[in-house]
Write a structure and sequence with these properties.
Length: 211
């Protein structure tokens, strides 16, 4: 899964021992109707788009963390099914309260597991949409197991450039505002970046839905 540099061994996104297959016991099901889109007027959407300086309010997220707000602009042209699913989960408030369970300094912060340990999801696996977008500082990409088509709800935000991940994980967005807030996410000191008393997502919303 990861490539080794000639001078040093780069950190892996997932160790083989932790690349567990997601089963029903490790998933969080969504109830029917939970993915209802919230309507906003054209005028309101325009004002929201302007206030957050995003290209498309329908394809941008507001991630609220303890230290402030983070704006993520998504890539619907490059990863349409992943962007669609992330928006469905955000609108269902799935991510609210979830932990950054795996955080490695100089590498990335991972979240999206309903059990806070990296083994869970929603039970809906996505077909890989690997693309040419690089893993650089601020990139938002999907976590997965050893199987390419196993991404579900977990994603990670890169603290720094991680070119050895390029073409192996689905990049679906990038942080366009608030990387200073991302930098303050609590790091892990346990095995494979496990975090004790980890930071949590306060909320994750589609910007077009904000009141």
């Amino acid at each position: 899964m990861a490539k080794e540099s000639k001078t040093k061994k780069e950190p892996k996104l997932l160790k083989e021992s932790s690349a567990k297959k997601l089963t029903d016991s490790g998933t969080k099901k969504l109830k029917s109707g939970e993915t209802k889109k919230l309507g906003v007027s054209a005028t309101r959407a325009k004002k929201i788009k302007h206030s957050y300086h995003v290209k498309d309010a329908e394809n941008a997220l507001l991630l609220k963390l303890k230290d402030g707000d983070v704006v993520i602009e998504m890539y619907p042209e490059d990863a349409p099914e992943h962007v669609k699913r992330i928006k469905e989960l955000a609108r269902a408030e799935f991510y609210n309260g979830l932990k950054f369970h795996r955080v490695i300094d100089g590498f990335m912060a991972q979240t999206g597991c309903p059990y806070g340990n990296g083994t869970g999801g929603t039970g809906k696996k996505l077909k890989a949409e690997f693309n040419r977008n690089p893993h650089k500082r601020g990139t938002v990409s999907m976590a997965r197991s050893m199987m390419p088509d196993s991404a579900d709800s977990q994603f990670f935000i890169c603290f720094a450039d991680c070119p050895w991940l390029d073409g192996q994980y689905t990049v679906w967005g990038e942080v366009t505002s608030g990387m200073d807030v991302v930098d303050k996410i609590k790091r892990g000191d346990g095995p494979n970046g496990a975090v004790s008393e980890p930071d949590e997502i306060i909320s994750l919303q589609v910007i077009a839905d904000l009141d």
